[in-house]
Amino acid sequence: MGSCDPVLLACLATVLLPLLAFALIMIFTWRRPNLSLAISLTASTIPVIIAWTLFFKLDVSKPIIYNFDWLVSETVKVPFGFLLDPTSMVMLVIVATISWLVQIYSIGYMSGDPGFGRFYADLSLFALAMLTLVISSGLLQLYIAWELVGLASYLLIGFWYEKFSASEAGKKAFVVTRFGDIGFFMGLVFLTLFYGSLDIASVNSAAVAKSMPPWLITTSALLIFCGIMGKSAQFPIHVWLPDAMEGPTPVSALLHSATMVAAGVFLLTRIFPFFAASATAMTVVLCISTITLILSSTVGMVATDIKQVWAYSTVSQLGFMAMGLAASGLAAGTLFPGYYHLTTHAAFKALLFLCSGVFIHHFGTNDFFTMATNGGRKLYIPMVTITIASLALAGIFPFSGFFSKEAILGALAQLDNKMWLILGLFGAFLTAYYSFRVIFVMLFPKPGAYGKVPGHVEEEAHSHGGHGHDEGHGVPWVMSFPLLVLAFFTCILGFCQEYLQKFLLGEAHPHHIEYTLLFSAVGCALGGIALAWYDWGRKDAKCVGFISKFPALQNFFIQKWYMDHFWRWFLNTFIYGTFSRIFTYNDRRVVDGGVDAVAFSTIGSGRLLSFLQTAFVQLNMLFMVLVLAGVGLYLLMGR
Amino acid sequence: MTEHAATFPVLSCMLLAPLTGLVILLLLKENQKFLIRAVSLIAAGVSLGLALYTFANYDKALGGLQFVEKYEMVKTFGITYFVGVEGLNAPMLLLTGIVIFTGVLTMWELEVRTKEFFIWILALVTGVFGVFMSYDLFMFFLFYEIAVVPMYILILVWGSTRKEYAAMKLTLYLMAGSGLIIPGVLLLYASSGLGTFNMVALHGAHFSPWVQKVAFVLLFFGFGVLAAVWPFHTWSPVGHVAAPTAVSMLHAGVLMKLGSFAILRVAMFLCPEGFQYWAHLMALLATIGIVYGVFVGLAQTDLKYVIGYSSVSHMGIVCLGLSTGTIDGINGSVFQMFAHGIMTALFFSSVGYIYDRTHTRDIHELGGFSKIMPIASAFFITAALCGAGVPGMASFWAELLVFIATVKVYPVNGLLAIAALVVGALFALRVVQSTFFNTPNPKFTHFEDVSPFLGLPRMILIATLVFFGFFPQTMVGMIKSAVVPFLQGM
Amino acid sequence: MNVMLFGPELYYLGAALVFFILTLKRQPQVKTDYQIAILLAGGGLVVTAFCLFQHGELFYKAYRVDLFSQIFKFALALAFFLVLTISHNLAHIEERYHAEFFLFLTTTTIGMMLLVSSVELLTIYVSLELSSYSLYILVPLRRGDGIDVESGIKYLLIGAVSSGVMLFGLSYLFGATHTTYLSEILPQLPKLLASPIGLLGLLLALAGFFFKLSVFPFHFWAPDVYQGAANQVTAFIATASKAAAVALLLRLVALGVGYGYHFAQALVFLSIVSMTLGNLVAIVQKDFKRLLAYSSIAHAGYFLMGILTMKEAGYVAAVYYALAYLVMNFTVFMVISEVAKDGRDLKIQELAGLYRRSPLLSLSLIVGLFALAGVPPSIGFTGKLLLMTSAMNSGYFWLVLIGAVNGTISLYYYLRVIYCSYFTDDPNLPPVTISTPIRCLNYALIAIVLGFGVFPDRIVELAKAAVKTVL
Amino acid sequence: MLVFNQLETYLYLALVLFAIGLYGVLVRRSLIAVLISVELILNAASLNFMAFNRFLAPTPAVGQIITLFIMAVAAAEAAIALSIIVAVYRKLKSINIEHATELRG
């Protein structure tokens, strides 16, 4: 079929180049860092070019679809194909760009690591999976890519596998997300059986509502949402994401903040009409995402590990996006607010992580108090960019976060129940607080004042990797370049709102600003910042956080709402403790024991019968005669 | 079904290749090790080549039985040498070819009683090929037993842990299975009244429901023992643990498939009504097997035990697919037979490599092997991920088909089975983590990694898995070409 | 009368005469005697083969020569020859008795040959006794520590009693039918089975035949005799006399029409009990020959399975299996007598390390045992499956099921033996050297056991033709 | 004397003989005695044959011939049995069955 079609070729190239890179590196060049790097970079650069070209040149106002048969059984028909529409285009650009930037960044970050080649192989694998996920035309293909993304995440989190915590985190991430994916898979099975097609276009069409009863739609939607919960780390199975920070920081930036975890929300937008068809499902989504938002922001307030802070902020922001989508789903709105926030968030969160990566790389610690006391602020470029990013995260004009958050709050405001809006604002407040907690600590360090901060231990930072350079120019350009690019996006994305909206929805809504909402939002943000300033920034700040007024609450937050404990307990008690043990015992004692018992009883009966053969020939003959008589009698009777 | 005679006896050659190799080996001296290995490798290679040839040249559009050969064996009892290829057994033949070829390569370094080892291996393989290709019940059963019995000697001489117990248990268990199969087969033979063992002819005979029910349950349990259907699975972990590498590969990779294949080929094909009657039982046992397998595997610390129980679980999936009696389900389970065969072969060959060096399989004692032997561990991890049902591997598609079909027919069992996947992933990763990650055990750090030559067989296996993971249609289309008429026949 | 018809018997009578003369010599020359014996046996093989397709009747129709009988005669001659081939060292028989060993072996062969042809009560009786009495003598001929005579006397007593019982039964048969010709007696079966006397007669008469076949409950002699007698003698009993007994039973059953339901059920009962008992008790045996004795009891059960179908297919299967059993059982006994050069009883443990001491013998042992266990591709597997097929065809589902399960049980003890010979080793056991002829014999036997297992058609067709002649 | 002129008498007599013989075989411990009992069984059989022949058989000779044969066979049997018994006595220093109890199980 139309293999001459340049667009199709572009899509294929986008997907296959990373695959090729992965294969090549894994089979041949994984021992050769530079060669692997070259291969991988080429394979990630071309997609970026393709993505941007398509984004600007290609008219996707009506979707472009390619489908080929991949597997054709009876009811199961799996096409392999591409669906290029605004939603996928934007995501394509995001993914391609950020993964490209991260690959560049990693040149500096991972230099000298024994597993350099493997790292780039895994990154390519991720790129392959993620790009396929974004432009795939069918849900099953999407699911496959989804699983592969999970696999890549598993490999990358556990990249430093000698560290027990790392391999453990990798396992946790894989299994927990798998837990959600099972739901996703079941949902797909339901769709296949009761609707018959997994083609995204047709799933979004109105035909679904006609051919499936509402309760079935709700069930499938919720099941699919399980997958989203897993991937986008929604309560209660968000627990893997903070642990996932065990991976190298570029990985955290790429997978666990910007793109992969956003895949869940992306899926939500992908089949937004389908979800919107079921109010129940949307309400559930709304509840869960709100809980997630609050939970993670509160935990973020007390974390001392910089990556933990951003991790929880990621969780909260994902929750925020989901809230936006759910809200607009319920209020018959568009997918724009959530999707917009996804876009902006991808930029500034990646930036946050990459900056933190620079600090970590430089000071060899994750504890931002230690970084601060060791003069983190003297690393100018990252310090500036991280501040910009935080401003965006907190939602301060004129940075991108401000616009997207405002859009989501607008969607929330359209709901009759204002409780959601209030919660959203509260979340925004907390977000501003914890992000500026970090920033102020970094900017105005108070050595020796952080002793009372729970979780923080005073340690002498050892300059990492023996970089002989003094602060200031301590950042190689390969690492600072991505920061600048991302910072740039963070600044401008806010003003692309109309453009994006037009691109995504075809028509741009006149951007009417509700000032009450606007001011309340900004107010919350500023309030949060002010509180942060009061707690951490000003000259004689107590540096303990207002939350320490409520020790119980603080502890509750520090313990991350005991979710990890809960899951650990669940695993130990039920999976290992009950089923596994019982089944194993049963297998050894009952099933296998039964078999052996049969065998031994056979042998025993043999030993018993052998006594029939007595040494006294006459006894034997007697027996003989008796049996003969018995048979004779039987015959006589039967006659 | 329609039969198309072979232009030249491909299948007989496939059957005779290992046999000839065996005879040549008999004439060789024990100390001519290289010659012995070479001969057996060539024998395996030839049969693999022929298997590939049949797989490639089977005309799906034409369908039916192709490459058919028929010779009268015993007129009085209607026994014929009747072999052929169709969509169902072509994958199995290919599987056997691949596994034996890689198996011989894997055992290249064997030094103890090499000659006998390869003699028995080749004998076993002859049996396996025979079972997969023959359409005469008598020959089917004959080859079946030929395939089963050499295991005893193979495990006993070259085996490791508790080998006496394991070998005796395995052999007797499987023979007890045949103890059920014989009456089942003969019941069909007798009640057909045709006086022939020709399966295709017997398929035409109309058995009374009673006969079908009895025969089916006999055959199902008889063959089910070999397919490790719960609760007749306990021989398999014990046997795997005791068996030497190549034997484990052949055994888990191919022999267990004999059981499931026979359930499909004989039991379901000849007594459809019996199948309808017992299908629910099948589904139930299969589901229990799936769930049970992963949970028990979760508690094991011996690598081979873990794999053994994962096999139990995966064979449960095969059986589940069969029990649906739908096109999807059977496509899936035959595909799963193939995929799981390759996968376990990969598993065992990797474990075998590590075990041969370290002489331990305790996952707590091992550790950090990704550092010591990255390639070997890459092989194992690939297998583990395939076992966890990661896409891009053949088994993913198989499981997908089976699960969808099952949810359609037996929703509860299907959902349970799907849910078991989580635990499956958990225990696969648990093994991977504690064996290959974390800090290496200093005892083992001096071992060298897989040499390219020994890496070759594993690479072949992985390549197969990935190929069919990316191009499932090559396999599914093949299977489907047979399944559709098969189900119409039922 | 046509001499050819009576050829084999006459030949062996002559052989017996020669051996008799040899016994008269003052001091025996073992070597020459053995050479003469082997030559005569070979000749006998030729003669019987030559007379294979004779058919006719002798002695006022008391003696039928047909393909059936001739095949079995050939089998007997074969057994005789084979047993002589492994008799090159009769370590446990004093040298001055060697000639007598040959003599009585010949006479018992003659007896059995007569037995398979005779179709008249008196003839049957006399030939049966001829064969038995020679064996009675052969068994205690062994030089031993007492178990030889013990087994001898037990054999004699049980044999005498059962033959007496049989004779008593025969007398009733004679009384009920006023004739001694099977051809006239058996057509009247329905009448016989109706009358208590006829029934009793038939039952008692069968006792004698079951004794030869060592069917439960007439099996008690087998273990003791197998263990007590010299290896070669045991080999002969285990092969030849089984074949003869099967032939005789087949004749009886085949000639008869309308054995009732109950009669068949009784046979089913005996068959099931024999095979189960034999297999179960064999599990716990230590002495290899004793184990084989029990396995022979089990096999008697299998034979009955074919016989009691009362159908042609069943008889064919039984004949095939009888021939198969002769070969595979002999294979095992050959291994015994070769390993136990000094003629001692072989404990199973004494097979330790056989694969090292003599790979060829261990191979033949495996082949033989697997054949006995009914593992393909072997003559035993095919035979057993044919037996079961015919049984199933006659609707004996449970019999087949139990038989199949028994196959599993039997495999256990065969595997134990294989285990000892293959996987245990005992460094202070010397290697076993075997002469070239024996080596060839090994190859031949393995070839036969495997070859006819995969391509049984020839034998089956032959057996079919033979069975047709007796129907 | 009709009693002597009818078949049943002889049949019952033979049966009694047979029973006695069987009994002797099963209970006597001396090998010689057992041998004698076996002879009784044989005689019972021959008596049967004679009787049947006398009263029923078409040809008068058959039964008598059989009986003659049986005598001969019995003689041979006795000879063999005695010779073995002698051997037993040589080895076990007794002709009591209870001493020949090596083989069992």
Protein architecture, described:
The complex is a heterotetramer of chains A (639), B (490), C (471) and D (105). Chain A has 639 residues and is mainly alpha-helical. Chain A has helices at residues 6-27, 33-57, 86-109, 116-135, 139-157, 164-195, 200-204, 207-211, 214-231, 240-243, 249-258, 260-270, 272-276, 279-302, 306-330, 336-363, 368-373, 380-394, 400-413, 419-443, 477-492, 497-505, 515-537, 551-558, 563-609, 617-638; strands spanning 64-72, 77-84. Among the domains of chain A are: 284-558, no CATH class; 567-638. Chain A has a two-stranded antiparallel sheet with strand order 1-2. In chain A, helix 1 runs antiparallel to helix 4 (116-135). With 490 residues, chain B is mainly alpha-helical. Chain B has one domain (3-489). Chain B has helices spanning 10-27, 33-57, 89-106, 114-133, 137-148, 150-158, 163-192, 199-204, 209-226, 235-242, 245-270, 272-298, 303-324, 327-358, 369-372, 374-387, 394-409, 411-436, 452-470, 472-489, and strands at 3-5, 65-74, 79-85. A three-stranded mixed β-sheet of chain B has the order 1-2-3. In chain B, helix 9 packs parallel to helix 12 and helix 16 (374-387) packs parallel to helix 19 (452-470). The longest helix of chain B is centred in the last third of the chain and has 32 residues, at 327-358. In chain B, 70% of the residues are buried. The mean pLDDT of chain B is 89. With 471 residues, chain C is mainly α. Chain C has helices at 7-23, 30-50, 67-85, 98-117, 121-138, 147-177, 182-185, 189-194, 196-213, 221-228, 231-255, 261-283, 288-307, 312-339, 354-357, 359-373, 379-393, 397-423, 436-454, 457-470, and strands spanning 56-58, 63-65. Chain C has a two-stranded antiparallel sheet. In chain C, a hairpin with a 4-residue loop joins strand 1 (56-58) and strand 2 (63-65). In chain C, helix 3 (67-85) packs antiparallel against helix 4 (98-117) and helix 3 packs antiparallel against helix 11 (231-255). The model of chain C has no long low-confidence stretch (mean pLDDT 88). With 105 residues, chain D is mostly helical. Chain D has a single domain (7-103), classed as Helix Hairpins, CATH 1.10.287. Helix content of chain D is 73%, strand content 0%. In chain D, helix 1 (7-27) packs antiparallel against helix 2 (31-55). Chains A and B meet through strand 1, helix 5, helix 6 and helix 25 of A and helix 7, helix 12, helix 14, helix 17 and helix 18 of B.
